[in-house]
Known about the structure:
The protein contains eleven helices and 15 strands. By secondary structure, it is of the alpha+beta class.
Amino acid sequence: MASSPPQFFKVILPPSLEHKKLxxxxxxxxxxxxxxxxxxxxxxxxxxxxxxxxxxxxxGVWFDxxxxxxxxxxxxxxxxxxxxxxxKNSNFRVLIFxxxxxxxxxxxxxxxxxxxxxxxSAANYSFENFKAKHKYRECEPQINKCRKEELVEKxxxxxxxxxxxxxxxxxxxxxxxxxxxxxxxxxxTEESKRVLKIARSLNLxxxxxxxxxxxxxxxxxxxxxxxxxxxxxxSRDAKSMExxxxxxRHKFMNMNVCWRENGGFALSMTELVEDENLKxxxxxxxxxxxxxxxxxxxSIYHL
Length: 303
């Protein structure tokens, strides 16, 4: 039985459209970056290849010139989900899924992306117009195949070819602006599913950090908050913080703070451990709702 091609998935976020470039997951680059040339091709089912320039910088490798043309042509919007299957020689087959979690209807191209009219229309097409013009589409069962969940399951089980969910999950959460401690880079498959589901449900308005409670947090009644989140605080002089626990009671708690040399901090949570019956594997979502007086909102997702 032939092995499946290497693949990775990307949730399309607003910066990918605003800045007109899409980052390739670093793990895929580590495994296959030596094979990638300056130009790549993207092809959807029944579609001609679109030539896209690959850009390398300190931030990684990106689909750059041509990526926005491709996204615009297929009406890709923020929140869409794409799977990239790698066919070697910088060639990628692309599957696109919309808000309904169903594969879109692909337009049949009459000409290459490289024609002059296509390039000119893309140059005159703003991101705001793109968002205003987009309309939600109902899934058409006879044509579209609702395969998003199937592909995610397959992607999680593939251990070759840059398709592992653990690294894609880390990459996704970072792009979303959710801070995670480096200690939580390694997610199990079940943790990945839970975290991804929770992250997609969030309405991100404030600096946000996601923490999976380790056993040490329960034992020592402390939760460690990463430096990437702590940098949003206006001052490091606070000895305690107001934490609003978003549960049925919306309880406010005053938690002692211990600032760490790495830039992060630890919160004492003895009372919280008892009140909420916390266990290893529970997920904390911290939101910094006030920088000036250091007020945090805490949502708890029990295992």
